Amino acid sequence: MLLKYFYDEKLAQAAYMVGCQATGEAVMVDPARDVEPYIEAAKKEGLTLVGSLETHIHADFVAGSRELAKRLGATMYVSNEGGKDWTYQNIDQFPHQLLSDGDEFKIGNLTFCVMHTPGHTPESISFLLKDVNADEPMGIFTGDFVFVGDIGRPDLLEKAAGMEGTAEAGAFDMFTSLERFKALPDFIQVWPAHGAGSACGKALGAVPSTTVGYEKRFNWALQYDDQEAFVKDLQEGQPEPPYYFAVMKHVNKVGPNIVAELPAPKRIDTLKELQEAIQNGAQVIDTRASALFAKKHIEGTYNIPFGKSFTNWAGWIVDYDRPLYVLADAEKLEDIQIALRSIGIDRTEYYMDVDLAMQSASEVEAYHDITPAEAAPLVASEEVNVVDVRNLTEWQDGHIDSAKHIMLGTLLDRINEVPTDRPLLVHCASGVRSAIGVSLLQAKGIKDVRNVTGGYNRWQHEVQSQTV
Fold it and tell me: What are the Rhodanese domain coordinates in residue numbering (predicted)?
């Protein structure tokens, strides 16, 4: 048997290749939309991808099952649980098998046993894996059910998709599902779909895998006997779900576009064309590092640096219903497209080489940083306003008394709440998110704004510690 791990840091998402080397067959578990790495790996291992398994209708990335079915004829193995509202649509054109609790199917000499594990979502299933001649499973693919040190959140349908009342119902379902999980043998390995950084839970560990026994002993969510207390605690402290989660739920339910059928973005060669687009309301993302953007950028552009958190903030900020323009290094454009498409942003219609754009620009904007020590007297004398763009839980743990809290992902929607009667200071925990926030504010016409370097963490050290 072969088990291969694929991890996308930008999505904090794990996919798995499971292969039977005796028969040369393999399947993917929870594949992402960019299936090329899986195809290449299977070829290298001498395996043929014959199927893809989905643990649930994902909310945080576009699943690659239909892509594999279209390109390779791979069978989609998907849930038939959760009722009619959670049925996969438009899959009759692809080879597929609907799965219910207790079902089993074989891939070569490997057996997959289906376990319905609702809680994160109603249709959620897990896959227990048995090797040939083994009478007990060796591991379980849990999707967003059980993570390392955490479990899937039950509130996404309510917070992201507006389905009222589903959070509490999901929490009760999760308690029941965990009781089934606790009954599994301690030695079973646990292979989850996400790691640290995912918004599908509140305290995910960074270790790739775990065991049932370890989670029963140390996972906070598996320590409850009182169902009511569990339901209450599970719903508290969950991070804000990105706006794009609602889009992903719909896309993965009805089916995404096939990547090969998407048009390639058109190249812009003149700054005049780009500036005319901005004047007509186009959304333009500059993907350079924030330090470069701060020194010099084109008016009206957003800065989302192409790094580990790029897809998360693109999902919060980009309007899916409008064409997107991208400023990027030419050699990074393909990877940027893959990242955007991984969360369903398919309307990247134009791009311009960012170096060409900056060289052509005669009029540019900039913004300045300010340290907490420099900012403190201005805050104390009320010469400036302060906007805190951290998550709600971070704000609740401590904040600058006079600050206005507007979480970064909601900043564009709440732009009218930003105080503009004084110069503006923006901070997060370290200065990374606030740099994005400054770019959004400037693009929307709020020009007298500075980024607090080091953020609240440095503020605590340089300012608060000096007043104790």
Answer: 278-308, 380-468
Pair of tokens at residue 385: 């306003």
Q: Please give the pLDDT value at position 203.
A: 84
Question: What are the two backbone dihedrals, phi and then psi, of residue 38, each rounded to the nearest 5 degrees?
Answer: -70, -45
- Of 115, 119, 8, nearest in space to 53 by CA: 115
Domains belonging to the chain, first-starting first, are 2-254 (3.60.15.10), 262-360 (3.40.250.10), 368-463 (3.40.250.10)
Q: Where are the alpha helices (DSSP H) in 19-143?
A: 36-45, 65-72
HSE of 397, CA atoms in CB hemisphere, 13 A = 11
- Residue pair 200/144 in contact (Cβ under 8 Å)? The answer is yes
Q: In this predicted structure, what is the pLDDT of residue 464?
A: 79
Residue-wise DSSP of 18-59: EEETTTTEEEEES-BS--HHHHHHHHHHT-EEEEEE-SS--S
- Say how far residue 55 (Cα) sits from the centre of its chain: 17
Rounded to whole angstroms, how far apart are CA atoms 98 and 53? Answer: 10
- How high is the pLDDT of residue 194? 95
- In order of 63, 151, 319, 343, the CA distances from 266 in angstroms are 26, 42, 19, 21
CA distance 57 to 254: 10
Q: What was the pLDDT predicted at 157?
A: 77
What are the per-10-residue average pLDDT scores of the chain (468 residues)? 96 97 98 98 98 96 98 98 92 97 98 97 97 93 97 86 82 98 98 92 91 98 97 92 89 95 94 94 96 97 97 96 95 96 96 96 94 96 97 94 96 97 97 98 97 96 74
CA distances from 351 to 272, 286, 468 (A): 14, 10, 51
Name residue 328's beta-bridge partners.
353
φ/ψ (deg, to 5) at 322? -125, 150
- The conformation of residue 257, written as its DSSP 8-state character, comes to P
Q: Give 276-300 as a DSSP string.
A: HHHHTT-EEEE-S-HHHHHHSB-TT
Residue 460 makes CB contacts below 8 A (sequence gap 6+) with 398
Helices vs strands, H then E, count in the chain: 17, 24
For residue 17, what is the DSSP state? E
